[in-house]
Each structure stands twice: as structure tokens, then as C-alpha cells.
Amino acid sequence: MAVRSFRADWEPTLSLSYGAIGDLNPPLGGESGQPARWMNLDVPWESAFPQDRDRIRPYAFRLATH
């Protein structure tokens, strides 16, 4: 859970994220102009919030090993 502004001209909002163990093969659905795709946690990514990768990695590791 986080409170952040997703754009400089927006007020901060509550953001909820969910983690799950799933199959990587089903097709992904996205929104117009925001296609869905899997992100590699071993490679830095360009994002408005680049620090998120380092926050997600330990959680993903725990899901994968339990």
C-alpha cells in the first residue's frame, strides 16, 4: 500500500498492490495506451517510480520460495 501522486498535477491517492502466484502463459490484458506485460525483476526498468523494483524483489522472492 502506498500514498503517492502518479502525475505531478494530480493529488496523492491511495494505491493498493496485490501479489499472487500464477501461470506466466495466459494472455495479458491492458488498458488503451497502457499495454500489460511481465517485468523482469533482475533488470532495472524505466518508470516514474524506479525504486519500486527494489521493493518488489524481496516480496517476489518470498512468494517463489514458500
Give a summary of the structure in a few sentences:
By secondary structure, the protein is α+β, with helices and mostly antiparallel strands. Helix content is 21%, strand content 9%.
Descriptive report:
The chain is α+β, with helices and mostly antiparallel strands. Helix content is 21%, strand content 9%. It is built from one helix and two strands. It has one helix spanning 52-65; strands at residues 2-4, 13-15. The chain has a two-stranded antiparallel ribbon with strand order 1-2. Strand 1 and strand 2 form a beta hairpin. It starts with a strand and ends with a helix. The model has no long low-confidence stretch (mean pLDDT 82).
Output the radius of gyration: 14 Å
Strand order of the largest sheet: 1-2
Output mean pLDDT.
Answer: 82
Total of DSSP H or I helical runs spanning 4+ residues: 1
Distance N to C terminus: 22 Å
**Percent of sequence in beta strands:** 5-15%
Number of strands: 2
What is the makeup of the main sheet? 2 strands, antiparallel
- Overall form: globular
User: What structural class should be given to the helix and strand makeup?
Assistant: alpha+beta
Return the string of H and E elements: EEH
Low-pLDDT windows of residues: none
User: Share of helix among residues?
Assistant: 10-25%
